[in-house]
Each structure stands twice: as C-alpha cells, then as structure tokens.
Amino acid sequence: MHYADLVIEGNIYTMDESKPFARSVAIKGDRIIFVGDNANDMIGKETIVVNAEGKSVLPGFIDTHVHFVGTAISRFDDLDVFGIPSISEILEAIKRVKKPEGQWIRVRGFDDSMVAEQRYPTRWELDSVAPKNPVIVKRLDGHSCVVNSLALDSIGIGPEMRGVDIDEHGRITGILRAEANEVARRSSEYEATKEEILRKLFDVSYEALRSGITTIHALEGSTGDVSQVKLLMDAKLPLDFVIYFQTTDVREAIALNLPRIGGCILVDGSMDSHTAAMFEPYNDKRDSRGVLYFRDDELKDFVLNAHKSGLQIAMHAIGDAAIEQLLDAYEYALSEYPREDHRHRIEHAEVPTEDQIRRMAKLGIGVAVQPPFLYYWDMEKFYIKRLGPERAMRLHPYRRMLEMGARLAGGSDSPVTPMNPIIGIHAAVNHPVKGNSIELHDALRLYTRDAAFFSFEERRKGSITEGKVADLVILSDDIFKIRLTELNKVKVETVVKNGKIFR
Ligand SMILES: [Zn+2]
Ligand SMILES: [Zn+2]
C-alpha cells in the first residue's frame, strides 16, 4: 500500500535547499512521504487531492515569540482597539460595548503613538461614552492605562499614589502609570475559572492555525509562578508548543524537565516607555538612556548558571546597552564552559551596533526578531522620534545580520501584535529602512526553517522534505509572483497540521 492520504499539487516552495521547488507533495499519516514533480502513482481511491494551482504551498509557519496564555487571557477583554486610528473612533467603539450597569468595560490594545491625536484619551472622554460603567483602556506595552471616573472611585485610587497623572489644575486625568497602573489592571481583571481559560487557549490555538501557524514558541510564567506553564503543558491543544519558562530560578525550569529557560526576562524595558537601555540618550528625552534591570554580576550569574545546567537561554534585550550587557554575559558563560550548539537567544535586539551583530554571529546567539513592530509602529512618529534619524537607521538591521552570519527567526510577541506571519514576512521585505530589508525567500526562512532551528527541530520540521512532519500552509497567491508591497494582502487558505487538513 503506497497510496498517500493527501496529495497537494501546485507551486511548492519547500524551503529545503536541496530541492527548493516542487510540483507535488504526498502525505501519509502525519509525514511527508514524497516531494517531486508528480505523485500520480500515489493517488488511490481514498487519497484526497488538493489542487493549489496559482497559489503557494509552504511549510507550516513557526512563531518564535508568543505569550500564549497572556494572549488567551487578553480575550476576556470586551474590546480590542489595536489599529483603530483615532481617539474619536475608539470612543465610538467603547460606546457600542453593551454591558450591565456597574460592570467593567475592559479595553485593550491602545497605543498613543498610533492614534491621530498622538495622546491618551482622558477620563472625562471615557465618562462621556460610558457613564455607568467603570472603564479601563490598557496600553499595549502593559506599562500604563487610562480609567474613567467610576473606575477611579471603585479602585480607590487617589492623587497620592505613585504614577497617577495630574493636570495643571490639579485634577486626576485618568492616565495611570507605575504602581497606579498595576493596581488598576489588577482590580479590573476578569476572574476567570481554569475551565474558562482553557476554552480561550483553544480559541487562540485555532486563531493561530488560521494564520498558518503550526508551532508556537510560548514564553510563559515568571519566577516563582509556574501556573501558566503547567496550564499550557497539560492542555492538549491542536498545535505544537515549545515552552519557555520565564524564571530566573534555574531549578524551577529543571524541575519541569524543560530543556530551556527564559523568554521575556527583562534585561531592559521598552522603547515605548523610554526604558529600553541605550548607550546614548533618547532623542525625545535627553535625560534618559533607559534602564538596565540587572546588575552585570547578577546577569552573568544567572546566564552562567543556566548555561552550566545545559539549558538553552532566551532573554529580552531591546536597546544597544542591554544587548551589550547580555552578550557580555553569554560570552563569559561560553568562555568558562564552552558548549557547541547551545542556541541561546536574544529576544528583540531592536537597535544593535555593527560590533554587536558581529559578536552575535561569532558566539552563535540566535536573534528572535519581530518584524510586525515595523508594520504597526510608524517610522517617523515613533522610531525616529525616539531614536533620532541616525540611530534609527540601525533599527532591525535584518540584512546586515544575515550578511554577517547571525541567525534570525521571526515572531509576533502576541498579544503585542497579532499572531500573523504574513504581516511579519511583509514587514521584513518592506522594511521602512530600505537598506535593512531582506529578500522574500529569507523572510520566509524566518518563519519556517530557521525558526525550527531555534528549537532544535530542524530535522523534523521547517521545510517540505520527505520524512518530515506534514505541517503545511496553502496561501491564496503565488507569493513569488505578486508585488512585494502587496504581500500583506495574501491570505492563508488551507493549513495542514500533522497531515490533517485544518481548513
Ligand atoms: Zn520582550
Ligand atoms: Zn515578549
């Protein structure tokens, strides 16, 4: 019995260098059994044949940076305003949310740099559209929020609390940062049961599959809090997970038998809040170079300890000063305990210097990049404003990184941006800094073959190769034929996970 269960015919871009293009792929069970010109003699009575003529067939996408449980929990919010271009439209949308009097209206995905008004809404504006409900509008990066008057009353936030914004008349504006932000977020949180969270985990799994994602690197939990990691390990979800526990206690990761540790463990903060650590001051805040959250010796200790224990490490470093500190720690650990094929990672690495790129390549440090940031945040209004025109040229220097031999893989940082590799591929090819853009083929590698390498799975997935797991996507267009500026319009039509058609 050599008949295949499934045969797909069309333009098959395998991402396998030894056979980059094929016309036919045959699948049996959960494996790819044939890749070549035609699989006619494998088509039996029971074989499903999918004609993908004029479309493109690719390996299933891998998103290497997702906060998956956080993404699921964010779905308890009533409204997502990500991408709504003005405060007036956001207020209209809040007005349309119908909830019983007195119940929280939770709004997520706000970013003042993305709206036409370039500011936060005020509590009075929120009062005007939702006078009978406490409202919280949460900023995307998690570091601030705005609440209305009812919310202020119900949380019990007064002007004395740290992070409460006061206007020139001494009134609370509703914008909350620091401690006040944390208190407001906590008090407004929907108290979900474990079953409710589990249901949302399934919902967002299907969302991911519909975007063509068949494997997710999930960065979960925090030091001392294993609950989200356990939840994900035990949930039997319909796609694959590579789990990172965001703890600095190496024993906690080892206790769970995880071969890796870290994730968005913050070496520095974010550019949004001027906390990403830079060598030079911010262009729009000359007294600030951001924040390093570890002392040099603390970071070295953690990295050395995790490295010595044989773990793969991932840490969040955005600014050049943070990248430097982390590279120093990796370099130190690798010189003390040399280890081949460690595959340690830096998450984000948004503005590395030329010298740092050279060191990443030399040390074999993988860079987990998020091209969608370039798509959603404006070059002028955000990046150049923060970094100044010269330094902004170093933003996400994908081309230079690849030229110098650094390894890259792509991700969304969901819930920061939606899990959508097509947008990431579009953004890497249509980079706002022309010299930093990469070829389409290389952009596809970020979400397939090279992403599989990041989790030591390059022999099992990441390309359409005989013997590999049958994870594939069929896209609406032949992506090598359409205009590069229109890649974002491409739709994921069909997803095959473990040999089964998802849709
Ligand atoms: Zn991060
Ligand atoms: Zn993250």
TrEMBL record:
<dbReference type="InterPro" id="IPR011059">
    <property type="entry name" value="Metal-dep_hydrolase_composite"/>
</dbReference>
<feature type="domain" description="Amidohydrolase 3">
    <location>
        <begin position="49"/>
        <end position="501"/>
    </location>
</feature>
<dbReference type="Pfam" id="PF07969">
    <property type="entry name" value="Amidohydro_3"/>
</dbReference>
<dbReference type="InterPro" id="IPR013108">
    <property type="entry name" value="Amidohydro_3"/>
</dbReference>
<dbReference type="InterPro" id="IPR033932">
    <property type="entry name" value="YtcJ-like"/>
</dbReference>
<keyword id="KW-0378">Hydrolase</keyword>
<protein>
    <submittedName>
        <fullName>Amidohydrolase</fullName>
    </submittedName>
</protein>
<dbReference type="GO" id="GO:0016810">
    <property type="term" value="F:hydrolase activity, acting on carbon-nitrogen (but not peptide) bonds"/>
</dbReference>
<dbReference type="InterPro" id="IPR032466">
    <property type="entry name" value="Metal_Hydrolase"/>
</dbReference>
